[in-house]
Write a structure and sequence with these properties.
With 151 residues, this protein is mainly α. The radius of gyration is 28 Å and the shape is rod-shaped. InterPro entries: YbaB-like_sf, YbaB/EbfC. It comes from Leucobacter komagatae. GO terms for molecular function: DNA binding. It holds the Pfam family YbaB_DNA_bd.
Length: 151
């Protein structure tokens, strides 16, 4: 900054060239800070993507005849049928498996939406997109509900 006598705070004379150099240095410092912030955000998003990829959820049928573990992307990792489930008719067991798989997939998708909202904020466009895609891909098993919200 220039004082009334034309000198800067450090006692040196200010010139248009010095002003331009200081402005350029300030602009570069601002750009460097923005780059560092973007890199940190990118690292956080990469970490979130890794977390989402490994999220799983388990669902059980109402009476515990079957249980299913699924990843947030929908991949089924494990299906277990208890002795009680083995006693069911094929039609009933098939329906329980179908519903329980859908429930496990939906729970895992909800976990991904929730984790994304924790990291990026509930108003993030990415979270909104993830919520919409999860609702479309994994509607509620027995109710057909497609409203994915936050817990």
């Amino acid at each position: 900054m220039r004082s009334a006598n034309g000198q800067n705070r450090k006692g040196g004379n200010m010139s248009p060239e010095n002003d331009a150099q200081e402005a350029a240095a300030a602009a570069l410092a601002k750009v460097d800070a923005q780059v560092a912030e973007a890199e940190a955000r990118r690292a956080g998003i990469d970490q979130l993507a890794g977390e989402i990829a490994t999220l799983t959820a388990t669902a059980r049928s109402p009476q515990g005849e079957v249980s299913v573990e699924a990843q947030s992307g929908g991949r089924v990792l494990r299906v277990a049928v208890t002795e009680r489930g083995a006693q069911l008719s094929a039609a009933r067991l098939s329906q329980l498996l179908t519903d329980t798989v859908a429930d496990a997939q939906r729970k895992a998708a909800l976990a991904a939406v929730d984790r994304s909202a924790q990291v990026l904020g509930t108003e993030s466009p990415f979270v909104g997109q993830l919520r919409a895609e999860a609702s479309e891909a994994f509607p509620g098993a027995s109710t057909g509900s497609d409203d994915i919200g936050y817990r």
